[in-house]
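Re-run requested by the PI after the first attempt was lost when the workstation crashed. Everything re-entered from the original request form. Ligand of interest: nicotinamide-adenine-dinucleotide.
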Amino acid sequence: MKKRILVTGGAGFIGSHLCKKLLEEGNEVLCLDNYFTGSKKNILPLITNPYFEVIRHDIMNPYYAEVDEIYNLACPASPIHYQFDPIRTINTSVMGAINVLGLANRVKAKVLQASTSEVYGDPQVHPQPESYWGHVNPIGLRSCYDEGKRCAETIFMDYHRQYKVKIKIIRIFNTYGPNMHPQDGRVISNFIVQALQGKDITIYGTGRQTRSFQYIDDLIEGMTRMMATGEDFIGPINLGNPKEFTMLELAEMVLRLTNSKSKIVFYPLPSDDPTQRKPDISFARKELSWEPTIKLEDGLKETIRYFRNIL
Ligand code: NAD
Ligand code: UDP
């Protein structure tokens, strides 16, 4: 059945892929964005679809529309972007959550929150299951994002308990792919752009810190499966690829796949940078019959092709 679906942050990296998939499934999609980090270019191929609507709006302010489902993605996601205006970042998370939940409550829509592995902070439990409460610095440079997202989860749970709003919470681990902003400072876009331009590959710290990288198509599949679950299933649920890499391994793989002669150079580690991150996805395997299918090397090849085209 055709649904009317609101995607906040729809012009961003993840949002643009999600809008495309929801349209392909035959839905009507409302893409809401203030273009802080997103771009009209990401959604340009969708504009001619009569079931696609674009709304310039800041989710810190209430928005009204008759919709069946809401995916709440509006929030800068890369450390450079979310630290640019930290007050705005935390406001976007908190006021954004209140505004989409108010809307969902009024129109009886299902609403999914794009939370993050950052709620686990610099984790002391490894890999991270959903039951882990995290190890987060509440007053550091990353707190505007981490604590904003943690608070948004609280607000979602309380709207559910108090007003019976139909909610879903996913915790997304590092995701990459086409439509990433070339200057957003995240490690995969940085390394690929540097390698393609013959510039130094900048590793922060020793490069022995780990992350687990998920290709965008795997995430979109997990997100839509989560939205399709019954009302009683709310999460939070981890969506990520459990294969773990050091930043040194990632740099070497990018250099090999791009045939680049760039040198690796080392810079200081930013404060509160987590030393390790890897999702425990047993819950998603069991409840969504989902697990990532795209290997890092294959996803990187697609992403490199994208960056070669746009640079
Ligand atoms: P992105 O920066 O590409 O997309 C965010 C989008 O939200 C952009 O289009 C931006 O313009 C828009 N936006 C920001 N503030 C807004 C506001 N106040 N009102 C309206 N629109 C606003 O980032 P992304 O990687 O696509 O991330 C999307 C969501 O997924 C974010 O909520 C992020 O926290 C979450 N997430 C992403 C990752 C990842 O690895 N990419 C990991 C964990 C969680
Ligand atoms: N990083 C790096 N070089 C870069 C950008 C990032 O070594 O040019 C490191 C960063 O310090 C972190 C990891 O790569 O340890 C992932 O960083 P990213 O910003 O992509 O995501 P997050 O830290 O939010 O997981």
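Saved to the shared folder this time. The radius of gyration is 19 Å.
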